[in-house]
Amino acid sequence: MRRRHGRWPLRRVRRTEPNRDEDDVAYEIKRFPYDGTVDADGHLLEPDWLWERYLDPEFRDRMMGIRVDDDGLEYLLIDGAPSRRTVKGVISLMGAMGEDDPRPSPERRYMDSIPYGAGDPAERIDLLEREHLDAVVLYGTVELLWECEVTDPELTLAYCRAYNRWIADFCRDSGGKLHAVAHLSLLDPAASAEELRRAVADGCVGAWVAPFTHTRKAHGHPDHDVLWATASELGVPVAIHPTYEPEFCTPVRFDGFGRAAEFHYNVMLRQGSQQALLSFLTHGTLERFPDLRLGVLESGMGWIGSFLDRADAVFDTISSRGLPITHKPSDLFVRQCFISGDPDETAAPLIMDHVGPGCFMWATDYPHPDHPGTWVDALTRLVEPLSPSTRQAFLGDNVRRIYRL
User: What angle do CA 107, 121, 100 make, to 5 degrees?
Assistant: First the structure.
């Protein structure tokens, strides 16, 4: 594989061998029984040297990085200052899928805890082959953490460019196995539109944006049209992917959960993505850009049936006065949108054919820690009741078509 900006981390990545004793392995590698399967949302753990090697020179004094506090715990450095959110060693747990009770400690380091396939392209291809997956569409991890704290449009785009260059290099020359998705921001839609052009020319198959905006203008607001127009012109999809969010839009309205607060927040995480999706209807964006392909990722998928039922019902009432769309919300969603979900969503098969089987795809989210140690058993159970055509679309054909893999 051709590398443009340096070597991949080999010595500092934990080389978890797939056939080690079961007691030593948190993530269990199993072979999925169906052919033609594609992971629509897998993740990488970016190396700590990414920003030094890929960030534009004029921003090197403001680069991101991983540092150690006085207690020996890692934190994220953002714009030359300690992060307010990614602290106390939490970053070292980002690859802990399947671990029973992972906890930060001075002995646990982010770079030393990157699991098999999450930091090296050859390993990821090997992992795909062992699990019987044809390909994976890849997203980052640190990229999900920092944007909530950066309000400078130029620095935001510089961070995005650095990451996009790196992930394009990671996936380059992988024989169609690894597919990069660019990170964009709505702080400067015109600059993001230009970055989308550059990233697609460099090999990215689409882009993603966070479920919030620092400007508080909804995603579908006309001020963002230049980005949606560019994505439509290029024929690449743009997806909404959950991230850490600024405090003003964190979807938790109660206090007092203590250590259970993380569970409460994680379950409610989809609210930001739901509101971002809804704004494309509220502002008429999907009708203005009928060629735009819009995705909702890692926010569950079973809810989309009741969501569209409610939108259609309200569309037929006085509450839709002034709404700048002429098509039913469900029709627009089926025409232009897609959604991915987790393998353990037991109710999802009941609504796929009702909404439209061409809209759904699945994802491993590997290797993030908020999942059990294997996805294979749950996904096998999920697709068993589906018709052969719906199963084939859900497991791989939809993501191939939408991302033009």
Answer: 40
Which amino acid is located at 77 in the chain? L
Q: Which of 178, 186, 192 is nearest to 140 (CA)?
A: 178
At a CB cut-off of 8 Å and minimum separation 6, what does 206 contact?
Answer: 137, 181, 182, 236, 237, 238, 239, 295, 403
CB 298 within 8 A of CB 371: no
Q: Which of 98, 95, 97, 74 is nearest to 86 (CA)?
A: 74
Residues 6+ apart with CB under 8 A from 202: 164, 165, 168
* 336's tokens: 């232009």
**What is the chain's length?**
405
- In sequence order, the 6+-apart residues with CB closer than 8 A to the CB of 207 are 181, 182, 183, 184, 196, 199, 231, 236, 237, 238, 239
CB 208 within 8 A of CB 240: yes
pLDDT in tens, 257-288: 888 988 887 888 889 999 999 999 999 999 99
As a whole number of angstroms, the distance between CA 148 and CA 142 comes to: 12
Q: For residue range 111-158, list pLDDT tens digits in order.
A: 999 999 999 999 999 999 999 999 999 999 999 999 999 999 999 999
Condensed to tens digits (0 to 9), the pLDDT of residues 25-67 reads: 589 999 999 999 999 999 999 999 999 999 999 999 999 999 9
Taking the C-alpha atoms of 214, 220, 223 and 224 in order, what is their torsion angle to the nearest 10 degrees? 80
Share of the chain above pLDDT 90, in %: 86
- Radius of gyration for the alpha carbons in the chain, expressed in angstroms and rounded: 20
